[in-house]
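Bench log, entry 3. Co-assembly request; chain sequences pasted below exactly as received.
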Amino acid sequence: MIWLREDLARKVYDISGESVELCILCGRCTAVCPFADRMDIKPHQIVHMIRVGDWSVVDSEAIWYCVSCLACTQRCPREINVTAVIEAIRLINLRARRDAIELRGVKELGVLPTIALVGAGRKYTG
Amino acid sequence: MRLLYYPGCTVKTTARAYERAAIGVLKEFGIEVVELENWVCCGVYPGLSKDSYHHLVAPIRNLIYAQEEKGKLRIDNNYLLTVCSMCFNTLKSANERYRESEEARRRVFYFMDTEPYYEAEIRVIHFMEAIRDIVGLPNLRKRVIFPLSGLKVAPFYGCYLLRPQNIGIDDPENPRIMEDIIKSIGAEAVDYPYRNQCCGGYLVTKDPDAVWDRIYRIAMAAINRGANIFVTTCPLCAFNLEEGQKRRREKLGNVLPVFYEPELIAYAIGRRDYLEDERLRVLRNILGR
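Structure output for the full assembly:
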């Protein structure tokens, strides 16, 4: 994938309206994240990578383990909407046709309620 | 009193028991629930991006339908009732963004220029708010004829009834609304650490095992604190809790049934007919009567 090497923090700001510059790296977002243990890069590290312009965060698996539960957003002492920041990184992928799932290939398709499938369509596909 | 009602996809399919009990309970308190003649899917999750507006289209279209029906039926309040926590949050978030942003209003109507203008007067409320703020807990307590004594209920709030704080219906860090209702109907509310945390949500489509492991942790905590039933207000939480416990049954040793808050209320006020037969059987089995 070839990226226009524009400022990542600026791009995240344009999409989400959130400034990662405010982050003090306290790690509270990671502490309260219900799926941090599944993430290759932890929420506070995602924020930091955006700040230093490390585009490899866009390719991380961690961003797809964010469940938009807003726990980090609720607790952030700097009032950063961390959920929206991670959503912005997901959107960089989804808007470039890089979907996280193929709905037809969903493992539990037979038992899942519509709410899960529409939610997944919203969060995992462009 | 009449309340306009937006159902959403899941209470019409896998969570029918929730809708039936919720509408029934409100009727017992003199509230006639009037389902919108037209409605479309809300989109499940509120959009988090600030540079796009398309996530507003479906929720605002629903709010336009509500505005129209309110006029047509001469309903004298601005409430739009929801029962699903996700629908509640998605509709209310869109309403707030639309209300606050001139740009959002302009863009939404550029896209929907054949719709009547939305005046942003509709107020989206959740079933739990209707019980707390319209019915009132003292009135609920007065109607209880079969107190659910012996029932140890683990309330599961999930995310979207509480967060973000400006949308949620209670203190996101220490919510009380579910416990207050549980106590009002004579049951015991079990305190455990995961009650206002995430069930795993849509991750179930991508990595179901991660969600089942999550549910294992939640259920184990509730079981260890002596709970014999889960109660929730979100059909996605309900699905993940039910299915996750099934998939981790051996490790858990015990599986807690998952009910919706109005089902327990219906039982307590003597309207068991608002419960589906199979679910009533499960509830009676736990209560031992």
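Residues 100-126 of chain A form one domain. The interface with chain B takes residues 14-17, 34-35, 38, 64-65, 67-71, 73-74, 81, 83-84, 87-88, 91, 100-101, 103, 106-108, 111-120, 122-124 of chain A (CB under 8 Å).
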